[in-house]
Design goal:
Blueprint: H1 11-17, E1 27-30, H2 36-45, E2 53-56, E3 77-83, H3 92-111, E4 116-118, E5 122-125, E6 128-140, E7 143-153, H4 171-175, H5 181-202, H6 209-215, E8 222-226, E9 231-239, E10 245-248, E11 254-257, E12 263-266
Parallel strand pairs: 1-2
Antiparallel strand pairs: 2-3, 3-7, 4-5, 5-6, 6-7, 8-9, 8-12, 9-10, 10-11
Bound molecules: biotin.
């Protein structure tokens, strides 16, 4: 899948870019893993500290949303963050949107690409998917035990399997260049820490509404809302402070779409 050997990504190089207070104090790097989310969840079950990150350049059993496989060849960036937020358990899905925002900003900063967000959390460049986010959590009767935010960024991949070829892209394909994955990863952690701290203060997305909505790729456009037993065409307006997508029908009647319950597609393809 790769023509040249990719840049080296390791803890030492990542630390060259890291300016965080607590995020990434512990970085667990391995050249190859089954899934960084699996590893981070194991750590979540132990006493591993908040802000630990797990990173690799190659996954053998990468996982995506809705039980999909996340094909993870060498040369991309795969990582997971272990968080122990002291917020109500119904706030977990908001962390995914905070991550999408930080990721979009980091990608713009490091690559110059005009990255946008397909609600709730796909990062899109030129109508194709560049990154995916899989947030998993564990709760008990007292609340959240841990949250794992897993992110896959297509960095150096130049070929995709037939079923996703028209829908996926990479930084290499979009810029024609190879970027430093350590720089991108370090930059993301710096931005994420700042955004996440704001989220912990407000416990909602109120501080991010304008920024998120300006990055929403479907904003003001018709989208297909795919529910269990029906499909509807509605216009996307933006998110509210809880992270739901506000849509309206032809009569201007508004409703809220909740992440996880439906799938949102553009009318002419993925975006
Ligand atoms: C999606 O379906 O869009 C989400 C993909 C998330 C993939 C990342 S790669 C790092 C982390 N480890 C995994 O097994 N999955 C996530």
């Amino acid at each position: 899948m790769l023509k040249n050997k990719p840049d080296v990504i390791d803890e030492k190089r990542i630390r060259e870019y890291l300016q965080t207070k607590w995020l990434g104090n512990t970085i667990l790097y391995a050249e190859k893993m089954d899934s960084t989310n699996n590893r981070a969840k194991q750590l979540g079950e132990q006493d591993t500290e908040n802000g630990t990150v797990v990173v690799t350049g190659y996954q053998t059993s990468g996982r995506g949303r809705r039980g999909n496989t996340w094909v993870s060849p060498e040369g991309n960036c795969y990582f997971s963050i272990l968080l122990r937020p002291e917020v109500m358990s119904d706030r977990v899905s908001m962390i995914t949107l905070v991550s999408a925002l930080a990721l979009t900003k980091a990608i713009k900063q490091v690559t110059g690409l005009d990255a946008m967000i397909k609600w709730p959390n796909d990062i899109i460049v030129n109508s194709k998917k560049l990154c995916g986010i899989l947030t998993e959590s564990s709760m008990d009767q007292t609340g959240i035990r841990y949250v794992v935010v897993g992110i896959g960024i297509n960095c150096n991949q130049i070929e995709f399997s037939k079923n996703i070829a028209g829908m996926a892209t990479s930084i290499r394909l979009e810029t024609g260049k190879e970027i430093s994955r350590s720089k991108l990863f370090g930059t993301f952690l710096n931005i994420f820490e700042t955004y996440y701290e704001v989220f912990l203060e407000t416990e909602d997305l109120s501080e991010f509404l304008e920024e998120y909505n300006n990055l929403l790729v479907n904003r003001g456009k018709e989208v297909k809302i795919i529910e269990k037993d029906k499909e509807r065409i509605l216009t996307a307006i933006g998110i509210d402070e809880k992270g739901g997508l506000i849509v309206k029908d032809g009569q201007g009647r508004k409703e809220m779409i909740i992440s996880g319950e439906v799938s949102v597609r553009g009318l002419y393809g993925y975006v």
